[in-house]
Amino acid sequence: MLMRKGQDGLEPVPGQKGKKKAVEQRDFIGVDSTGKRLLFMANEADLDEELVIKGSILQKHPRIRFHTGLVDAHLYCLKKYVVDFLMENNCLHVNVFHPNSLTSDTYLDWSITSIRSELIPYLVRKQFSSASSQQRQEEKEEDLKKKELKSLDIYSFIKEANTLTFAPYDACWNACRGDSWEDLSRSQVRCYVHIMKEGLCSRVSTLGLYMEANRQVSKLLPVICPEESLVHSSAQIVSKHLVGVDSLIGPDTQVGEKSSIKHSVIGSSCVIRDRVTVTSCLLMNSVTVEEGSNIQGSVICNNAVIEKGADIKNCLIGSSQRIEAKAKRVNEVIVGNDQLMEI
Question: With a threshold of 0.85, does the pTM exceed it?
Fold first, then answer.
């Protein structure tokens, strides 16, 4: 599944000093005229100055629509022979869910390390090459590239019985997408894509996107779950009029007198003392903020303690960290020496 690229919020990213614009690596995604069949997929970093499209693809699909503004939502539906292919070649950590038994198995693999950047482009390339022609091509490439490439031939995992068994179903499936029976019979490997145009799906691959996703919760929750209140019923708030309508407060959280919370997400079991100001922040669970503190544009992780009168702006505070009284912190990442940032 593919979706439109998310936009980082306009507010500063916690812990980032100055404006740093990440180098964008676009995905070039080619689909057929229906927008359903995936014909080409490559990252800009893996391409030269031009796109090379195989003639066999253009013969069957003379009109290809390319997208550069889509990102992978990391949701895949794979046939079992693809999973068998991964397992046999020891390619990847794969979690296989069995719906009948509600269990899952995990398999370890090393040759293919990524579904997104290696497996999917491999399958897309295989769509328009027969097993025999592909084997000849691989034999030519053996001396130039990897001798073990032949062992990664996915055609050896496609059983003819399976193709025949599901032929009526596949014919109906492909008819809905404009694929003819001739294409079905010749191309046993077929890749399709769903481009999400509406609904809710968010990638939080950067801290900016993570913060922005949390800021959207107060807008989306009333639409998705209108029966849910943004302020949990078990939360104890003394000055309720100082809690903005765009803030979310979790269960068992305590907010003291004259404390202001605006445009923020507060987790469960937090303790916010009197005369505290929290603006555009994310406080995870069991955070303690002592009296008179001011926190703006920051992420405070589980069990952190902000002592009396501290002033924190655009910071990342790690789990169980303690900020001393009356401290001033701006654009800092504060974590323990032996821990990673928990996001």
Answer: no
